[in-house]
Amino acid sequence: MDLIKDRINLSGGMIFNDSGEVLLLLKRKHHHWELPGGKVEKNESIKEAALREIKEEVGLNVFLKGFLGVFYFSMKGKQYASHTFLFKMKGKARLNEPQEFNGLAFADPFNPLLNNLAPNVKKIFKEINKGKELQELVLKISKKNIKKN
C-alpha cells in the first residue's frame, strides 16, 4: 500500500472488542468521534503508522486482521486519504492523550448511534452499511471470530 500523493495521509483502524464493537475517541479540537490513528510520518509505512498511533492514543497492542480500504475526505479545505485497517483488541483501552481526546466509547459498526462522527468515520460506516463485501469482512472480524477466554 502506497501513500496517496497530493493528500494528507492518515492511518489508523477500526479496533474491535470482544463484543464486536468499534473503539472511538472524542477529539477535543474538532468535537467529533474518530477512529484511533493519525498522520503517517516520513519514512514510515502505513501499517507502522497505524500501530504507532494506536499505541500512543489508547495504549493498546492489537492484532491486525485485515485492511478495510482507503477513504478520501475533505475537512477545512484540506484533502485527506484515510488508510483504514481492521484490528482486534488485546488488553484494555485507555486515554493516553487527554490533551487531544476527552472521551472513549465503543459503537456498533452497523449502527454507531453517535452524533458528531469525523468525516472519514461517517464515510467508513456508510460504506460498510451499503457494501456487502465490506459488511462480510467486518462481520467476520467483529462477530464470527470472537473467542471468549
From the alpha-carbon coordinates, what is the Rg to the nearest angstrom? Answer: 14 Å
Task: Return the domain count.
Answer: 1
CATH fold-type name: Nucleoside Triphosphate Pyrophosphohydrolase
Give me the strand/helix succession: EEEEHEEEHH
CATH-level-2 architecture = Alpha-Beta Complex
CATH class call: Alpha Beta
**On the 0-100 scale, what is the average pLDDT?**
88
Q: Bin the helical content.
A: 25-40%
Runs with pLDDT <50, length 5+? 144-149
Largest sheet, strands/sense/barrel: 4 strands, mixed
Strand adjacency order, main sheet: 4-1-6-5
Structural class of the secondary structure composition? alpha+beta
* Total of DSSP H or I helical runs spanning 4+ residues: 3
Shape summary: globular
Strand content: 35-45%
Count of β-strands: 7
Q: Could you state the CATH homologous superfamily? A: Nucleoside Triphosphate Pyrophosphohydrolase
Q: What is the end-to-end distance?
A: 34 Å
Describe the 3D structure:
There is one protein chain. This protein has 149 residues and is α+β, with helices and mostly antiparallel strands. The chain has a single domain, classed as Nucleoside Triphosphate Pyrophosphohydrolase. Helix content is 26%, strand content 38%. It contains three helices and seven strands; from the N terminus they run E-E-E-E-H-E-E-E-H-H. The strands form two sheets. It has a four-stranded mixed β-sheet, sandwiched between helices. A three-stranded antiparallel β-sheet has the order 3-2-7, with no helix packed on it. A hairpin with a 2-residue loop joins strand 5 and strand 6. It is globular, with a radius of gyration of 14 Å. The N and C termini lie far apart (34 Å). 31% of the residues are buried. The C terminus is likely disordered.
